[in-house]
Design a protein that fits this description.
5-stranded antiparallel beta sheet, single chain, about 500 residues, Heat Shock Protein 90, alpha+beta, Beta-Lactamase
Length: about 500
């Protein structure tokens, strides 16, 4: 079950990733078009703005090759054991850049890939350093002091022999690199990490090929992640270039969480819009049916039948308009098109206004409307939004209350909040209905006591409007005994 505020949360997470300052983020669709790119990656590719980026992308076929999805498909098909892909990109000026890409495919309901979400680390300098390491002896590597990496010389049996250290290094688990010279790996690292390093050293010395391992360490109650690149130096010695990649890992975890949220949100929105299509089709079919009867058989129909069919058309039209109005308001809220303009509002006066509007509906079912709200209870909220909330809640209460019932509106103060309640003695809800009440992907269209139609979208709109006003909406209900919807709003302070 995924609610609309989760979709909104996903959008805010997208924004936080857009501003990620040390890792590139890009989403590429199945046609190779970058639909999402953050500022850090724009800068690496030598663009000042996204508009400049998209203009260059549209006009430069060579640059478009950076985003070809074939490399990602090949990566997935080869089932490479590494969790990242090393790739070569070209920036705006034609310069070669090396990236390490962490790839997450996003699937639709048919298990088809619709996006590739990639977190990107610029490893151009690392590749450059790797080349230096391969071509110089240890005594010639003073240039490495300019890098925020810790370089060790290690023997084939796991003894630290020498080091290169920069003031920019920040490895809290080592008080001083000098202290570990002459010590064995297992004296510095936990056994599991030590075994991983030693086995990689032996493989490097055996194959004379670079090995890369990642591991985590606990220090002062916090987990840090590290990458060790182990390079052949001589037949019995290897170099270890140790790098703190905690920020990268945290961003990678965040990206995967966001990707999962966005994938789930896409699926939920697909289901939601399917429900909308269904809920629109049903009344339109009804309208068409009654209209066709009137058009074809009006000469044969009695006056009462014409009146009945016409009333049905009017009622279906009203319900459809209400549904479309709620849908429009909800969608405008999700994309930030509704302006939040809080002010001091009287719940009492607002309830009186809505009672005047809905009293004929209540009278048709002989339902009593009671306004027990306190005139002195003033909330601080957007009047239009809260009016819509109260209108929806009171309309629903009338809909689900039997003839001869009553609906009571009341308010109370709790700390810095005003609590408003809409209580009826209607049909109520069971546990399953309560569970699905706020679910976008559930079709909650229980007919009213007089067979009134609805779609359930109104209650979701109420929840989101209350959230927008820094409040909370909740419900208590028992099947056959009625329901009580309550929501909190900030109290107005003079």
């Amino acid at each position: 079950m995924l609610e609309s505020n989760k979709i909104t949360q996903s959008l805010s997470l997208e924004q936080s990733l857009l501003n990620q300052y040390n890792l590139g983020i890009v989403r590429i669709d199945q046609s190779g078009y970058p639909v999402f790119i953050n500022n850090y990656l724009l800068n690496i590719l030598s663009f000042k703005t996204s508009d400049e980026f998209y203009e260059h992308f549209s006009n430069n076929s060579e640059f478009q090759k950076n985003f070809e999805i074939s490399k990602y498909l090949n990566y997935l098909q080869l089932e490479i054991k590494s969790n990242y892909l090393e790739s070569k990109w070209i920036n705006k000026n034609g310069k070669v850049i090396f990236f390490k890409e962490f790839v997450n495919p996003v699937y639709n309901d048919n298990n088809e890939i619709i996006y590739f979400d990639c977190i990107i680390e610029d490893i151009t300098n690392i590749k450059f350093v790797d080349e230096l390491i391969k071509n110089y002896q240890l005594r010639d590597l003073s240039i490495l002091k300019a890098l925020p990496d810790l370089l060790f010389l290690i023997s084939f049996d796991g003894v630290f022999l020498d080091y290169k250290y920069s003031n920019r290094n920040n490895f809290n688990f080592i008080s001083s690199p000098l202290d570990i010279i002459g010590k064995r790996v297992e004296e510095i690292f936990p056994n599991e990490v030590a075994d991983l390093i030693i086995s990689s050293v032996k493989k490097t010395l055996s194959d004379e090929e670079l090995q890369t391992v990642e591991f985590s360490l606990e220090h002062s109650g916090k987990s840090s992640f590290f990458e060790a690149r182990i390079i052949y130096n001589s037949s019995d010695q290897a170099l270890i270039l140790l790098r703190d990649i905690t920020t990268q890992k945290q961003a990678e975890i965040e990206l995967r969480r966001v990707t999962e949220d966005l994938e789930a949100a896409n699926k939920e929105k697909d289901k939601f819009f399917s429900l909308i299509a269904h809920d629109l089709r049903t009344p339109l079919v009804g309208l068409t049916g009654y209209a066709e009867i009137l058009a074809a058989d009006i000469d044969e129909l009695t006056k009462d039948e014409v009146k009945e069919y016409s009333n049905n058309i009017v009622e279906i039209s009203r319900q459809t308009i209400k549904f479309l109005s709620n849908l429009l308001e909800w969608s405008r809220l999700q994309i930030g098109k509704i302006t939040y303009e809080p002010n001091d509002i009287s719940i009492n006066r607002m309830v009186e206004s809505i009672f005047q509007l809905l009293k004929s509906n209540a009278a048709r079912k002989n339902i009593i409307l009671l306004n027990n709200t306190n005139p002195d209870h003033i909330a601080y909220a957007d009047e239009n939004m809260i009016y819509s909330v109260l209108n929806n809640l009171i309309s629903n209460a009338i809909k689900f209350t039997n003839s001869g019932g009553e609906i009571i509106l009341s308010t109370r103060e709790e700390g810095d909040k005003i609590i408003t309640s809409v209580k009826d003695n209607g049909i109520g809800m069971d546990e399953e209905q309560l569970k699905n009440l706020f679910a976008l992907n559930k079709s909650f269209t229980t007919p009213g006591t007089a067979k009134e139609k609805g779609t359930g979208l109104g209650i979701i709109l109420c929840r989101d409007f209350v959230n927008k006003n820094f409040g909370k909406l909740w419900v208590e209900s028992k099947l056959g005994e009625g329901s009580e919807f309550s929501f909190s709003l900030p109290k107005f302070n003079n």
